[in-house]
Structure formats: structure tokens, C-alpha cells
Amino acid sequence: MRGAATGRLQLGLSYAFLVTLLVIVLFPFYWMLITSFKTEEQMRSLVSMFWPSPFVLENYAQLLRKTEFVSWYGNSVVVAVSSTFLATAIGTIGAYALARLRFLGRGFMASATLITYLVPPAILFIPLYAQIKNMGLANSLAGLIAAYPSFTVPFVTWLLMGYFESIPEELEEAAMIDGATRFGAFYRVVLPLAAPGVLAAALYAFTQAWNEFLYALVFITDGRLRTLPVGLASFITGDVYGWGYLMSGAVLTTVPVIAAYIYLQRYMVEGLTAGSVKG
Amino acid sequence: MAVPAARADRVVVAGRGRRAGLARWLGPDYRLGLLFVSPIVASVLALVAYPFCYAVYLSMTHKLVGMPPIFVGLENYVRLAEDGFFHRAVYNSFLFTFSSVFFKLLLGMAMALVLMTRIRWRAFWTGVLLIPWVAPTVVSALNFLWIYDGSLGVLNYLLVRVLGILPQGVGWLSEPGTAMASVIAVNVWRGFPFFGISFLAGMKAIPAELYEAAAVDGATTVQRFRHVTLPGLKNIVIIVVLLSTIWTFNDFGIVYILTKGGPGGATMVMPVLTYETAFGAQRLGEAIAVALYLLPALALTIVVLARYMRKGRKR
Questions:
Q1: Given A140, A198, B11, B67, which residue has the most CB atoms within 10 angstroms?
Q2: Alpha-carbon dihedral of residues B283, B284, B288, B290, nearest 10 degrees?
């Protein structure tokens, strides 16, 4: 009897704790969303705090008409999509080689990739900026596309190495006994099996590039060439913030990432735990 | 069908004969292996190794933006060692990092333990709780900037008008006494789900028999946590804590957006100081010296962490 009672109490406390966490986790997003539909007058007068009244789309209209938000959106899409393709392609073949193929320097390369993944951007951004500038790519989207593999490639590679290692080697051996080349075994047997992992890795690469702030802040000086995070942050340099259109911009910036995450949550949660801490 | 196959075999054998020497030295898969790895090698060399070496060199120069560097040896480091503002940034960085990691560890552990109980919709809870980790950091920082706002922010509204805990609103980010704690809270909010999800994965990997055996021996819940869960999670805890320590120490976006290091340096951490020295004061050499000052500690952390991460994979 007592066991059942403590069990029920424990379960009740668990739910209470989860609901509290849920509120803490979601409230900032809820606040962002309702702010984006409020008028400046309502915000100033502190009435009906938790629901827009009146409910207006004015902030969005102003954001799209009066700021360079649309250009920033385009820039972010270009940069994030290109670096995702680049990182996923380089990372996938590299991870396969490091996980499976036997060649001189493999262990060293695997360690080097992992260490690179751990080197923080905060110590690389100045020399990288100097380098990008020397290549004539400062203040261009190409400069960001060139620099982002510094963090996306090691991450994708490390994540996928774990994935490839979890695929039984016998499958490739069987394919090769049947006459497939090493490349054929990779392309036709391993790659399709690793597709969920590649998808998760690509999504994370996209998210990282989409969210990146420091390089984009430093490399880009032209207002029109900003990416979304830098563009949004630029709204707060003035004294009057205009929370309404800032929050509407924040909503539109968050939507693609959260939509992809909700849609492909299973792969991403699995990928995260496989990539960082397996075992 | 049989004839071409046989011929293909012979070609392969002949080829192998010629390449056997190289293959012995470079490994049986060296051609595809080197081909597949070369883009990574190129990007790591060009985007990490070379900039890193260049950073070490620049930190030993006087470099103004747009001017050639002048070599000055360790002067930047020596000067920083005597600079009170830099000392404060180092202290703040450690305070920010260790407090954040500590609370992320606590919350993450609680989250994982709760998700291990027999609750319903576990996938739903897990999925929702991970959202701060996937959402753009800049967006989250801006959301909190708005929540913390001294006059119109919802936090003050809740504490003063709804709950009546405070007599009047607090300038969370503009007062030295609360700024650091407010910034830490945002970092914890964003980072704890990663701890939780990693610990959850680790707990699921602990064999159920261990818990059953402990239950048979009459172990209490606390004892089971202490003697079964924690030892089973040891490696993951070490990995996640070290990983998060590196990330938190080098977190730029949250602090930069919320306070830019203010008020009066109360939240000035090393990455923000690096940025301000480089692009505010335009002293690149000194800025990189700030970034590299704790390099020995960072390098040691990275090496230890990389070991654990590789070991974790091999099991």
C-alpha cells in the first residue's frame, strides 16, 4: 500500500516539475509571439499583458516595409543552405572514411577533427576575419559561406562518425563479396542506411549556420548584407527599441528552425545524443 | 556473365600487385580514404589550424585595423596581467561559467530523472523541453532583453503587480547587483535541456538488472541514484560538463545582446572584451591576447574532453 502511495506521489511531483519546466521553457516564446501582435500603445500602458488587445498585424507590416528584414531573410537562407550542403557533403564522406576505411593517419585525423570541433569561435573570429579580408571576401555572403565550415564540418563529421560506426560492417563486406567496389558499398549500402543520421546532421548544420551571430556580426559591415541574427540585434542599438517589430522579426526568424525541429524531432533528438555523448 | 566477372577479377589482382607496396604503408583503403578525408583536411587547415597559428602570432604584435602588425613579443600579455579591467573580465568569465554550468547540471539531472519515471508522453515532454537549445540564441537573448526590461518588462509586471513580491520594478540588466545573475539565468535556460537530454540517454543505457538487483538488496531511491545511476552516468556527466564549460566560457551572443558587458563592466566576460578591444578600441593584437590568455587551460580541457568523447564512442 505504502509503495503504491509513494509511487503516485512521485509521479505527481514529476508532472508538477515537468509542467513548471515547460512554462519556463515556453514562456519567452509565448511572450515574443503575443508582443508581435500588440500595439505600442498597449505595451506602454501595461494593459491586458498576456493577450494582444487589439490584435494587430501592423508590426509585421512595418517590419517588412520599413526595414531591410526581407533582404536579411534572403541572406540567411543563402548562407545557411549553402553551408549546410557544403558541410553535409564534406562531413559525410569524411566521416565514412574516418569511421570505416583503413589508411595511414586515420586515428590522427579523427582526433584532429574532434579537437577542431571543440575549438571555440571566440578565439578564431579575428584571424578568420583577417583571412577572409585578404581573400577579398570581407563584407560578402561568400565570406560567411567560406567561414562557416570551420564549425559545421567538424560537427557533422563527428556526429556521423558515430552513426557510421553503428552500422554493421558485415553489410559492406557482403556487398563487396557480391562484387561491389568500396565506393559502391558506401554509396549503395551504407549511405541509404545512414540517411536518418545524415538528415539530422544536415539539420543541425542548418540550425548552427542560421543561428550564427559572431562571425556574421564581424564580417559584414553593409546593412543590407546582414543575416537575421545580426539584423535583429541591430534593432537594439538605438534608444527606442520598437519591441513590436523586433519581436515580429524574432518570430519569423525562429519559425523555420522550430518548424524543422518539430517535423523531424525524432531524428534530431537521436542525432544529438548519438553525436555528443554516446554510450 | 561469368566471363567478364573472371576478367574483372584478374584486373583487380594485377592492380593489387602493383599497389601492394603503397597499400602496405598507407593502409588497404588509402586511395578512397585519402580522397574522402581531403576536404576535411583542407577546411580544418584553412579555417582552424592556420587562423589559430595566425592568432598566436597576432597576439604578439601591435596591430591596428588596416595597419601592418609590429612584433612586440609578450608585451600584450604582460600588460593585460597588470590591467584591472581585464582581471575583472577573467573573474566574471569564471563566475558566469561555473554558476551557469552548476545550475545546468542540477536542472538537467532533475529533468532526466523526471523523464525516467513512468510518465506519459515522454517523447512530447522531451521534445518541448529541447526547444531552447534549438532556437536561435540571438532570438532568445532578445526575448529576455524584453522580459527583463525595467519599465515595460513582464518580469517586473509579474513580481510587482501580480505577485506583489517586490515593491517596485528592478532594472535587472542595468543594475550591477542583478545583471550577472540575470545573464546567467538566460544561459542556464538555454543550456539545461542539452544536459537533460544527454543524461536521459545515459540513464536509458544503464541495464535495468542493476536497478532490480539494488531493489532486491533493499536500496532506497536515493541509494539507487547514488550507487547505480551516478556511476553509470559518470562519463556522460564529465563529457557534458566539460563541453558546456568550453561553450559557456566562450559564449558571446547572450552577454553581448543583453548587456554588452555592462553596467560598468559588471558582466564583462572575456569573449565580449575580445570583441570590444578588437572592434571598439581597434587594437587587434591585444584583443587576441585576451582571447588566448587562458589557452593552456582551454587546451588541457579540450584534450581531456576529446579523450572521454572518443572513449565514450568505443564502448
A1: A198
A2: 10
Chain B residues with beta carbon closer than 8 angstroms to that of A103: 26-30, 33-34, 37
Domain holding B243, by residue range, is 85-314
**Of the candidates B40, B52, B197, which has its C-beta nearest A269's C-beta?**
B197
Whether residue B181 lies inside any domain: the answer is yes
Distance (Å) from the alpha carbon of A66 to chain B's nearest alpha carbon: 20
**Number of domains making up chain A:** 2
Residues A37 and A141 in one domain: no
Answer yes or no: do A44 and A172 share one domain.
no
ipTM for this prediction? 0.91
**Domain count across chain B:** 1
Q: Are residues A178 and A242 in the same domain?
A: yes
Per-residue pLDDT tens listing for chain A (279 residues): 456 777 788 888 989 999 999 999 999 999 999 999 998 888 888 888 888 888 889 899 988 988 899 999 999 999 999 999 999 999 999 999 999 888 888 889 988 998 998 999 988 999 999 899 888 998 999 999 999 999 999 999 998 998 888 888 888 888 888 888 888 888 988 899 888 889 989 988 999 999 999 999 999 999 899 999 999 999 887 655 688 889 999 999 999 999 888 887 777 777 666 544 433
Are A116 and A186 members of one domain?
A: yes
**Domain contains B21:** no
Hey, which residues 175-234 in chain B have their CB within 8 Å of chain A? Answer: 189, 193-194, 197-198, 200-202, 205
Q: Is residue A62 part of a domain?
A: no
Residue A137 belongs to what domain range? 67-276
Report yes or no on B281 lying in a domain. Answer: yes
